[in-house]
Amino acid sequence: MATTHALNQRTAREAPEASVTPAHDINRSLPLLALLMAGSGCAALIYEIVWLQLLQLVIGSSAISLALLLAAYMGGLCLGSAIFSRVISPRHHPLRVYAFLELGIGLLGVLALFGVPLIGRLYLVGATQGMFGLVLRGLVAAVCLLPPTLLMGGSLPALARWVQTTPKGVSSFGTSWVGLLYSANIAGAVFGCLFAGFYLLRIYDMAITTYVAAAINLVVAGLSFAWAARHMHVPVNETPERAAIPVRGVKLIYVAIALSGMGALGAEVVWTRLLGLLLGGTTYTFSIILAVFLVGLWGGSSAGSFLSRRGKDARMALAGCQILLALGIAWTGYTLAHSLPYWPIDPWLSLDPWFNFEIDLVRCVWAVFPAAFLWGASFPLALAAAAGPEVDPGQLAGEVYAANTAGSILGALLFSLIVIPDLGTRNSQQWLIGISVAGAIVALAAVRRIPRAHLAGMTAASIALGIGLMGTISEVPWEMVAYGRRIAPTMRAMDLYKNRPMTVLFRGEGISSSVLIAEGGGSRHFYVSGKAEASTAILDMRLERLMGHLPALINPDPSSVLVVGFGAGVTAGSFVTYPDVKRIVICELEPFIPPASTQYFGKQNYDVMHNPRTQIVYDDARHYIFTTHEKYDVITTDPIHPWIKGTSTLYSKQYYELVKDHLNPGGVVAQWLPIYDTDAETVNIELATFFSVFPNGTVWSNSMNGEGYDLVLLGRQNDNAPINVDDIQQRLDRPDYAPVGASLGDVGIHSAVDFIATYAGRASDLGSMTVNAPINEDLNMRLQYMAGLGLNSMAFPQIYRNLLSYRRFPDGLLTGAAWRMDLLKTLLRPPSTKSR
After folding, report:
1. pTM here?
2. Which residues on adjacent β-strands are paired with residue 529?
3. Domain count, the chain
4. Helix (DSSP H) and strand (DSSP E) numbers for the chain
5. pLDDT tens profile 308-352
6. Residue 93: which CATH number?
7. How many CA atoms within 13 Å lie on the side-chain side of 514?
8. One domain, residues 668 and 705
């Protein structure tokens, strides 16, 4: 660095005037520098995916925690780009500076693998609920994410200094060149998103994925150092008399591009929510949505760079782009409400997940690409609009990028935490149109030499257009919230059975999910984000009651209970019937779900929400268990399906270890395991992971007419203790246990023998099924990727029959009167050996 500084000083003395970087050198270096920026974008997206998953394990995955993580990540990008030109002198070789930035990012990326778990242990010391807990979560997010993202934020300004400059400042050629670098960075991000989401994290784990990203940083840094060694940098003169001349209206351009960023991230939040309903909330779905959004930004930024190079009025072009954005947002709103839900797409037509991914890709492009393209074009147009005499290209790129990123942070937080929960997705899209119109008006105000009458007329026309477009936005059909990715075949089936209409009773949109409660076919149904989660139908009620009664009856003295997930409240309500239970703690992410479920399922859940023994904690369950010091006699985990992005943390080995550590002596844990919408490989992973922590764990089934749809896994603190069937029957016969007996009787279980007959196997019997199955761990999240591939499987009958074929009477596990044991031996024979 000393040698470099001396070289820069000598060069500055030899060239006291601001020098021109030859255009032919720029043209020759552009392909390589675009490749460098693409590599940087690829690594950055990989890191973003990995870091957010790692930190969610520490501070939780609630909406507040995710908002803090996003604010820290994007805040670092914003600060890094804003302060770069003030910290790094233009005399330093831009490519060498860029190389050091990439080395720093790679080093910090690798350190995060080892540092985040350490910070997690430190966080555990002071973790608590309330405002102090939120502040502590924000501090953890900032400590972990700000250092590397500050460096990431400086990457574009660093390379922007390697542009053509003239005595008049940054030329239109130079601004278009910076725009192309931005476009290349986004192109790399597209590849990183797909590479990590579809390959690296599916095949390997977070460690390997991080090392790949760090290797990309290392290669980019090496190429940058090599190019810097071969090409001398002639710095821009920094003497006071040649200081940058203020550009009139530049602050309005910053406001306009900030509004554009606000709209872009706000739209990504809204449209990801709605497209997630339609496509299914798998990790692949989110990767596709993000990739399409990024492809649109890439295409738009490339087009915007070309347009700005032609030297036209960039400010007028920027204003026109924002008006077109209002039209693009209205188009997406129309497709989501009136087009895509009615495409005749049946995901069961092909069990090949890749075929369905292709269809999902087409639907995302149809809906999202036009608006994303226009947001992408806004950035290079803003660069050209803000350029002026003697401006440092690094400062120009940094300030425009910082303004855009600051708006993005505000948009993401505003829409995810306030606008959607308070106003819903329909009104949110109307807000997006308003934001785009506001951006257009601000950009128009910055246009030079425009008559005031013309400005007033264009402003009025923009407002009128925005109001008209807002009126075109409609709610997405309620069937999309209920049936999600299977809306087309379900609605077709409903047309065939018109005598079974559905009546919507409740519809709500929260911070992280959309909920619908409807009645039809003699049952009341509870849907969350396109999936049926509960109902009053006998099969669903049987499962929901078993999730509570199995651990409560097998534990001889249940006093304290932790329930993960409120849902319809039926599982939590099962514990209300027990005279022994003194405390019921329920973890739920969505605050509006318990009141809605209580209103429509209060009879079935025994009004558990208002029971004096009940405490509801609105937090991510894993985070709550991670931070609480309380232990329980019973813990039930009834999460949403494991193919939902992020849910596999509640099916991981480390989660089960946390749960086991929070059991009192003799405590019992119950875990829901669906065998529908999944394949055999996924079920084997789930079983193997649970048995790795509870080696004597047992499996219990929810079946009807010989067909099984759900399993309940039981693990106990004392795995070797026998289950006394006689004791269970004696408890059921007690007068104070009459409500328990009635609750079981409602779902067809009338005795202890009926109850124990739901037994389906234990770890020692199922070993041959799970012997080669990988374990789902926090650092690989293998389950969510495998489950996402098996989503269309209809193999549940075969999975259930195969499971029962391993079942044997559990000698040593069950005790009781001889006649009860003989009856159970008959009932628990494998299906193939039963008399016909």
Report:
1. 0.91
2. none
3. 4
4. 31, 16
5. 776 668 899 999 999 999 999 999 999 999 999 999 988 888 888
6. 1.20.1250
7. 30
8. yes
